[in-house]
Design goal:
Blueprint: H1 2-28, E1 31-35, E2 40-44, E3 50-55, H2 57-60, H3 70-103
Antiparallel strand pairs: 1-2, 2-3
Length: 113
């Protein structure tokens, strides 16, 4: 019985290590979503965390994209990025609060939010 428990513990530790590696790999990914025919692109990591947004002039004024200056686009990208990042942070905080309620505040290795 003692050997079975040791094997189970070793399997759990291996699974935790694999989960940590997978989380690091996902965090390093860059995934791009596009809309409006590719004129709006959003980049996130493999964990779904927002990284950046790019807006082409065609997305703002499709009839005359040259009328849209780069400063306007950059300002829009910045304010949209800030709003998305704030939403991500709030969602992470909410998830952490819920998980603490579920786990009673106990830290479970390999289970991070």
């Amino acid at each position: 019985m003692g050997m079975n428990l040791m094997n189970i513990m070793k399997q759990v530790q291996n699974a935790q290590k694999r989960a940590e590696v997978a989380q690091k790999e996902l965090a390093a990914l860059e995934i791009v979503g596009e809309s409006a025919g590719g004129s709006v692109k959003v980049t996130c990591d493999g964990q779904g965390k927002f990284k950046s947004i790019k807006i082409s002039p065609e997305a703002i004024n499709p009839e005359n994209p040259s009328s849209v200056d780069s400063d306007t686009i950059e300002m829009l990208e910045d304010v949209i990025s800030a709003a998305i990042k704030q939403a991500n942070e709030k969602a992470s905080e909410e998830m952490a609060t819920k998980m603490k309620q579920i786990t009673g505040g106990i830290s479970i290795p390999g289970l991070s939010f």
